[in-house]
Amino acid sequence: MRDEVREQATTIIARIPEGRVTTYGAIAKMTEGATARSIGALLRLLPEGHTLPWHRVVAAGGRLADHGGAREQRELLSAEGVVFDVRGRIPERFFWP
Prior knowledge:
Blueprint: H1 3-14, E1 22-23, H2 24-29, H3 36-44, E2 57-58, H4 70-79
Parallel strand pairs: 1-2
């Protein structure tokens, strides 16, 4: 990912409000050249101690992506008031923008 696209993506992620989520694809569409997969890769490669709210980025359809941090992600979102339906999806009312 080009540096300017990485900067666009991280700026967008930083602006996701507490208690709201968005998708990898939605973030990609707000940039000049990122893909949903490249947003996922960006989040996987964040250095330890970063402050980006990575947990507010979810897969299409409001599901948590299948990754090692999914349990922590669910806990962080729940602590912010985000709820999950019986199928494990986040209702549309929690999506930003």
